[in-house]
Specification:
about 425 residues; alpha/beta; 3 domains; six-stranded parallel beta sheet; 15 helices; globular; binds nicotinamide-adenine-dinucleotide
C-alpha cells in the first residue's frame, strides 16, 4: 500500500489546479494538497476551499510559501514558462520533491543547472513529460521493445496543432510570443522531442531544422477588419478565427474557461471586448513560428523527422515507425495503432481505451508514477530527469539550427550552452 503524501501547489492555474490538485481530489488516499501560492484571488480561494487549506498556508507568491519551513513532501511547480527555475531551485533547497512543469527552463544552461542542483540536493524532479505515460505512447514503446517490427530504421512524427488551438494559444494566448513564454519548439514540441527520445531509446547525435511564420501577421489583415472581432468585423462569416465562433458556443470547458472565470455569455462577451482572446488574429503581438520541421540522427542509427504545423483541422498527433520487419502507424487522438508485418503480410489494428482525459490519461498516470517512485525509489520513472534534460536540449538545438541554418551536434551544443561547466 502506498503511503499518503502531501503537496503544495505553486501556481494554481490550468495545470496546478485543474490537473494536479484535481488528482488529489480523485485520489484522496494518495495525495493531500496542504498549501498553495497563487496571486489570482479567485483561483486561490477556489483551491483553498476545495482542499481545505489552512489560511496560514495560502500565499500570493511562491517566494512567501518557500520562505517558511517545508510543509509538505512535494512541490508542484506550475507557474508560467519563465517562472519555473526560481521556485524549483528554492523548493529543492527546502527539501521538497518536485513535479516541474515543462518546459523545465527557457535556456539550456538553466536546464543543466536544475539537473546538477537536483543531484546535489538529492531530490527527485519529475518533469511533466506526460505523453510517455499515455496509453498510446506506452503501448507503442512496448511494441517496439518487444521487437515486433525489428530494428527501428526511421520515424515520421507529426504534431498537428490544429488551426483553432494554434490561434487560441499561439496567436492570441499565453504562448504567442517567445519573449513572454518560450519558442514554439520548447513550449509545444518539447513533448515531441521527448517522445522521439523515448521511442528510439537512443541519444540524439545531430539535428537540423527549418521553420517560419507568414500567416498570422498584420500584413495579412483583411481589408476593413477592426483590431477586435466584436467591433463589427465584416469578415465574421468567412473568418474561422472570428472570436465568438470559438468562445461563445455551448462549450464551457477549454478553451473557453481560459478567457474568463465568468462563463455566462455576458462574461465571455466582456472578456472578448477587452481581453487578449477578442483580438483579430492579424492584430496580435505574436511572434512564434507557425510550422517547423526537424530532422534527427540518433546514436543507434535511427533517423527521424518531426513536423509541427498550425494548419491542420484538429489537434492531433500522428506517427509512422518504419522497422526492418514491419511498419507501425499510429493516431493518438483516435487511440489507434496499426501494425503491418512484412513476413506474414498481416495487418493488426489495436484500439486503445479512450475513456481517459488529460493527455489521453497521461496526466494522471504521470502523477501516480511519481507518487509510487517517492514511496519506493526502486520504482523507476520513465521520464527521468536526465532524459528530460536531453529532450529539452534537442528543442533548444532545433531552435538554434533553424535560426542559424546549420546542423547542430547535441554534445557540442550541450558543452557550448554551459560554459560555467555544470
Ligand atoms: N505538461 C503539459 O502537457 C502542459 C500542458 C499545459 C501547460 N503546461 C505548462 O504548465 C505551466 C502552467 O501552464 P497553465 O496552463 O497552468 O498556466 P496558467 O496561467 O493557467 O497557470 C499559471 C499560474 O501561475 C500563477 N502565478 C503567477 N505568478 C505567480 C507567483 N509569483 N507565485 C505563484 N503563482 C503564480 C498564475 O496566476 C497562474 O494561475 C506552463 O509552463 C505551461 O507551459 C504543461
Amino acid at each position: 500500500m502506498m503511503k499518503k503524501l502531501s503537496a503544495v501547489i505553486i501556481g494554481a492555474g490550468g495545470r496546478g489546479y485543474h490537473t494536479y490538485a484535481a488528482y488529489a481530489e480523485k485520489h484522496p488516499e494518495e495525495l493531500k494538497i496542504v498549501g498553495v501560492a497563487e496571486p489570482d484571488e479567485a483561483r486561490r480561494k477556489s483551491i483553498v476551499t476545495a482542499h481545505d487549506i489552512p489560511s496560514g498556508y495560502a500565499f500570493t507568491d511562491w517566494k512567501d510559501l518557500l520562505a517558511i519551513p517545508r510543509i509538505a513532501d512535494i512541490a508542484f511547480v506550475c507557474t508560467q514558462d519563465r517562472m519555473h527555475v526560481g521556485p524549483a531551485l528554492l523548493a529543492m533547497k527546502k527539501g521538497y520533491q518536485i513535479v516541474l512543469e515543462k518546459p523545465m527552463a527557457v535556456t539550456a544552461e538553466e536546464c543543466i543547472r536544475l539537473e546538477t542542483e537536483a543531484r546535489a540536493y538529492d531530490v527527485s524532479i519529475a518533469v511533466s513529460h506526460v505523453l510517455r505515460y499515455s496509453p498510446f505512447f506506452s503501448r507503442l514503446k512496448e511494441i517496439l521493445d518487444a521487437g515486433t517490427i525489428g530494428r527501428v530504421m526511421g520515424i515520421q512524427h507529426n504534431e498537428n496543432v490544429g488551426h483553432i488551438h494554434y490561434s487560441h494559444s499561439y496567436v492570441r494566448g499565453n504562448w504567442r510570443n517567445a519573449t513572454i513564454s518560450s519558442p514554439m519548439i520548447l513550449a509545444k514540441s518539447c513533448h515531441d522531442m521527448d517522445i522521439l527520445l523515448f521511442l528510439t531509446g537512443s541519444n540524439c547525435l545531430n539535428l537540423s531544422s527549418f521553420g517560419s511564420r507568414s500567416v498570422f501577421m498584420a500584413s495579412n489583415k483583411p481589408a476593413g477588419a477592426p483590431d477586435r472581432c466584436l467591433d463589427g468585423c465584416p469578415h465574421r462569416v468567412s473568418c474561422p478565427y472570428y472570436a465568438p465562433k470559438i468562445y461563445m458556443t455551448q462549450n464551457e470547458g477549454w478553451p473557453v474557461n481560459v478567457i474568463t472565470d465568468d462563463l455566462s455569455m455576458e462574461g465571455r462577451q466582456k472578456a472578448l471586448k477587452s481581453g487578449p482572446y477578442g483580438r483579430c488574429v492579424y492584430a496580435c503581438d505574436n511572434d512564434v513560428i507557425e510550422h517547423q520541421v526537424v530532422n534527427f540522427e540518433f546514436e543507434n542509427g535511427t533517423t527521424a523527422v518531426f513536423t509541427m504545423s498550425a494548419f491542420t483541422p484538429q489537434t492531433h498527433r500522428t506517427i509512422k515507425i518504419m522497422g526492418e520487419k514491419g511498419e507501425i502507424r499510429g493516431a493518438m487522438e483516435r487511440n489507434e495503432i496499426e501494425i503491418s508485418d512484412f513476413s506474414s503480410r498481416d495487418k493488426t489494428v489495436i484500439t486503445l481505451d479512450s475513456s481517459e482525459s488529460g493527455h489521453g490519461g497521461g496526466d494522471d498516470k504521470f502523477v501516480q508514477a511519481f507518487l509510487r517512485h517517492l514511496n519506493d525509489p526502486s520504482y523507476p520513472l520513465v521520464s527521468s530527469l536526465d532524459k528530460s534534460v536531453q529532450s529539452h536540449l534537442m528543442a533548444f538545438a532545433a531552435e538554434e539550427s533553424m535560426k542559424k541554418r546549420t546542423v547542430v551536434n547535441i554534445e557540442d551544443f550541450r558543452r557550448s550552452s554551459c560554459p560555467s561547466g555544470y
